[in-house]
Each structure stands twice: as C-alpha cells, then as structure tokens.
Design goal:
Helix content: 40-55%
Largest sheet: none
Structural class: mainly alpha
Shape: flat
Radius of gyration: 26 Å
Number of strands: 0
Distance between the termini: 33 Å
C-alpha cells in the first residue's frame, strides 16, 4: 500500500485513508511528530477480522508503538489515552481495564468478544461506582439496558444484585432489541441469568413452577422460570410433541435440550418421525449416535435442517452417521446442493469411500 502512495504529497495525511487500510501502513515510516494523528485515525479500525492468523502479531506491535507514541508508562490509561487507542482497547488485558478511566467501558462495548479476564475487570470497574452507571446500590433495570452488549458476558454473580422481575423484564427487552445475537450468546445470557435466580424446588419430584403450556412457551423469556428439575417435571410429552418448533426455538441450554429430545422419543416409543427431525434445531446437537441411527433422513430438507450451522457445530462422528443415513435412501446422492448444505468443515468428516462417489463437477 505504501508503494502506491509514497510519491503523494499528503502521504502522512492519515485521515485520507480508511482505518482498516492504516492497519497495514508501515509504522516505521510514520514521523514521530505525526504518530498521534496516525493512532487517532486508526481508532475505528477492525483489529480482529482484518488480520489473518499469520498477521495477528501486528496487533501487539501496534499497541507497543501506541504506548511509545502516547507516553504510556503504566496500566492506568487516561481518558485521552482511551480515546486515541479506540478499538485497540479490545486487546487490553484485565489489569489495564480495571485501572483505566471509566470511558474504556464504552470502547469495550464494541469488542467482538471479551475474555473471562476482561469481563472480570469490567465488573471490578463497574463495582467501584465511579462510572456512568453509578453506584451498585442504585442499579436497576435501566442499568442493565444501558450496559447493552456487556450483559452477554457478565457472570451470574453480577445478576444476583437484581430481583427476578427486573431480570425477566430485561431479558425480554434484550431478546427483542438485540435479536441478531448468535444462539451461543443467547444461551450464555440465559444461563447466567437463570443461575442467579434462587429456587427452592431443585430436588422436588413435583411440578411447582407451573405446568408448561403453549402460552408458557410463547413468553420470550421461556424457560427462565424453570430450573432443570422443574423443566423436566412441568413439561409433558404431549406438549413437546405439539409445540416442538416453538420449544426448540426458545430452549438453548444443552441440559434442557436433552430433556426435550428424551420426551420426544417417549412420545414415539423411541422413534422420532422425519417431520419432527426437521424441527429439532439445537436439540439435534445433543443426540447420540444411537439416536441418529433411529432417525429417518430421506429428504434434502431434513438434511438442510440438520446441517444449519446456526444451531451449533457437529461432532465429526455424528456427521458421518447423518450423511450415511441420507445416502442409504435409494436415489439420494451428494450433489452440489447437498455439498453446499453440508459445508466445508463437515465434509472433512466424510469417509474416503463416500468422497470418491462425489462427481468432481459437484465441487465447482
């Protein structure tokens, strides 16, 4: 990139270039007098998806250069430091985060992900009370809303500060406003909030939380009010069979999905009809080899539903069984449509003998 612009008179006018392009700018060519300007323009760059794995070392090098440029000598970043570093704050470890100016919190909201250490530091900073979110004693439902994407990473211990109704109302709001989150993110959020709700019905063999009906399932927060024991006690086989699509859309945690799958098997004497296999969604990911061998997978629509990556990844051994079941049906083969549905990672699970049956034209 530098070779293309080095003859230009405004080569150090960094505002002329997209932030992501500046990631590849040769920093050794940045005049010391212009380094702050360089990092200010770099603040909005995507430090995570732009660099290939082989170039990730450049992220660390950029931070080292930024520290030198800005005269950062401690792990206590000022508001100005945070402003100039911008999205580079997502690279910081917990020791920087918990000791820095509270404005770092707003920068961290833009991070594609947070580590456990970073999240712990965020909680420490929040609990200090010297942030826009106020003292912990004043936190309420609006606080959770204002925390936004942070709530996807906060541990159950954080949610203990809020009562059940506040958490339920917040979860309903969050699922509506941030509907584009991944299933894994939704699973994590629901799990942490549910674990923060104390229950006196962990071991009882009776349903005390209320029989689960179609109306219960329609609540966006379902099954928040049911611990694993109550979910099992209050969910009938017939309700699972009649509301499978709605249930698998709402239920995310694996232990709950296992109960759904078990009750569905009970409904059909261990046999799950193909039209219901299509509706398993994330519940398919908790199936065993024996479960899958009992399924009918004859239609490409069933294969497509099972291979939907939004429901999670597959264990390679299970992919083999699914493909074998599909190919065992007369007339079925792995054409271009099937290969696109299965996807690259899952194709690597196929036996050599199966791969040999695929026409080279279908790989195009």
């Amino acid at each position: 990139m530098y070779n293309q612009i080095k003859e230009e008179s405004d080569v150090t006018s960094f505002s002329l270039y997209p932030p992501d392009v500046l990631l590849f700018y040769d920093y050794s060519l940045v005049p010391r007098s212009s380094c702050r300007s360089y990092f200010q323009e770099l603040a909005e760059a995507d430090f995570f998806s732009v660099f290939s794995p082989a170039l990730r070392y450049k992220r660390s090098a950029l931070f080292i250069n930024a520290r030198s440029c800005l005269g950062i000598t401690s792990k206590s970043l000022t508001e100005d430091n945070v402003s100039v570093l911008g999205n580079m704050c997502c690279m910081l470890d917990g020791s920087y985060i918990q000791n820095s100016h509270p404005s770092i919190l707003e920068r961290l909201k833009n991070c594609p992900d947070l580590t456990v250490e970073q999240t712990s530091a965020v909680v420490t900073l929040l609990k200090n009370g010297n942030t826009p979110y106020g003292d912990p004693s004043t936190w309420n439902e609006q606080t959770l809303k204002d925390l936004g994407m942070f709530t996807l990473y906060l541990p159950s211990s954080f949610y203990l500060r809020f009562d059940r109704d506040t958490k339920r109302n917040f979860l309903r709001y969050f699922l509506r406003v941030f509907g584009g989150m991944s299933r894994e993110q939704r699973r994590r959020l629901k799990r942490e909030i549910r674990q923060s709700i104390k229950s006196d019905s962990e071991q009882t063999a009776e349903c005390t939380a209320g029989i689960i009906t179609q109306v219960t399932i329609s609540d966006p927060t379902f099954p928040l009010d049911y611990n694993i024991n109550q979910f099992n006690n209050c969910l009938s086989v017939s309700t699972v069979k009649e509301n499978l699509d709605a249930i698998t859309e709402k239920v995310d945690e694996e232990e709950y999905l296992r109960i759904v799958l078990q009750k569905l098997k009970e409904a059909g004497n261990s046999i799950i009809p193909e039209d219901q296999v299509e509706l398993l969604s994330a519940a398919s990911r908790v199936a065993t080899v024996e479960d899958i061998r009992s399924w009918t997978i004859s239609k490409i629509d069933t294969l497509a539903a099972l291979m939907d990556s939004s429901n999670g990844g597959w264990d390679p051994s299970l992919v083999k069984v699914i493909i074998s079941k599909y190919l065992a049906v007369g007339g079925n083969r792995l054409g271009s449509a099937e290969l696109n549905l299965i996807g690259g990672p899952n194709l690597c699970s196929l036996d050599v003998n199966v791969i040999r049956t695929i026409s080279s034209q279908n790989f195009r």
